[in-house]
Specification:
Chain lengths: ~150, ~100
């Protein structure tokens, strides 16, 4: 099984985990990407949303479980074919929620290019944007090294 | 039996005549990475790299891309799957059919 391990700087990453944990509760109640279909039967739509929310909740749970007690000992997280798909989705969900909660004021171009001077941002915006960048890096790592596992699953 | 020389009207499946053809349209967002969208298109629709990149760039540059068309039920299933990947997608009737 292909597996990648990444050693992270604890003092940098630990505060970002607090941001993810804070958003996790909300992600259990509201879809990160709103359901845009308007002409679905109400009952059918409700069952869709329930199923999507359950999946989203589980994704974020798996993401947070990467940073358990062992992580605070060695600073290492591991991605493999068992968790790659779920983690890459969880990162997408949290990034979307970060935008909604904290990053609206940055504008679309800044969010797309990530061309923002972090020193110019004030808390809690700065920490939220660092979290946004951190999760994008996790996604890039997984897509670069484990996309075949995801596509083949 | 259709005559290929004289019967030029394209064949339409009976199900399509009954329900019409629906398009699955993916909408742009500034958050999801280009590489992520390409991977999702490959995974969900079985696109090759070239097609997936072309569709992703349509979304990025034009704000939307039609990624599939066909029966309503299957189109809804694709929208659901795209939502699982946190992409925003809508359905619209394909007026050409």
């Amino acid at each position: 099984m292909k597996r990648i391990e990444v050693k992270l700087a604890l003092p940098v990453v630990a505060p970002l985990l607090d941001v993810i944990k804070e958003l996790a509760d909300g992600l259990g109640k509201k879809l990160a990407a709103p359901l845009a279909l308007t002409d679905l039967d109400e009952e059918y739509r409700a069952s869709w949303v329930d199923e999507l929310l359950a999946a989203q909740n589980e994704e974020v749970r798996v993401l947070l479980s990467l940073f358990d007690g062992d992580f605070f000992t060695d600073g290492v997280v591991a991605f493999d074919e068992d968790n790659a798909e779920v983690i890459v989705r969880a990162c997408a969900a949290v990034r979307l929620r970060l935008r909604e909660r904290y990053l609206q004021g940055l504008g679309e171009e800044a969010l797309e290019t990530a061309d923002v001077d972090l020193q110019q941002l004030e808390e809690p915006l700065r920490r939220a944007f660092m979290c946004y960048l951190f999760l994008a890096t996790v996604q890039e790592l997984i897509i670069q090294h484990l996309d075949e596992s995801i596509l083949g699953s | 039996m259709p005559n290929p020389q004289t019967d030029t009207k394209p064949a339409v499946l009976p199900e399509l005549q009954l329900e019409g053809v629906w398009r699955v349209v993916v909408l742009n967002d500034p958050v999801n990475l280009m590489s992520y969208v390409v991977m999702v298109f490959k995974k969900v629709f079985g696109f090759n790299e070239q097609t997936a990149r072309k569709k992703m760039l349509e979304v990025h540059e034009q704000g939307r891309s039609v990624v599939w068309s066909g029966l309503r039920e299957k189109a809804e299933a694709y929208v659901f799957t795209l939502q699982q990947w946190h992409l925003t997608a809508v359905l619209e009737p394909d007026e050409a059919h």
